[in-house]
Amino acid sequence: MILEVAILNVKPGQEKQFEIDFAIAGQFISSIKGYVKHSLSHCIEQKNKYILLVDWENLEDHTVGFRQSTQYLEWKKLLHHYYDPFPTVEHYELTIENKNNR
Questions:
Q1: Domain 2-50+57-87: which CATH class?
Q2: pLDDT tens across 48-70, in order?
Q3: Residue-by-residue DSSP string for 9-61
């Protein structure tokens, strides 16, 4: 499993509309082969800052399957104009995991 991580800095004052459009855009990413799940969280200290986490079965499901799809074009059209600066996207593989056993 691969974790995609992106810090999203949304232009100030556009947070509410971004969240609405992001909810719509979820249908495009979730339809891609290899997609597992995603979440969007907002920063408490900076209201226009978000973190996007996406679990993919493998790296190519994101970098090829999604990024080269027509669904990505719809995602891009809905969301990319909100970002300043444009986000850096990184991918991570799990190294260590602990869970509470209570």
A1: alpha beta
A2: 999 999 999 999 999 999 999 99
A3: EBPTT-HHHHHHHHHHHHHHHTTSTTEEEEEEEE-SS-TTEEEEEEEESSHHI
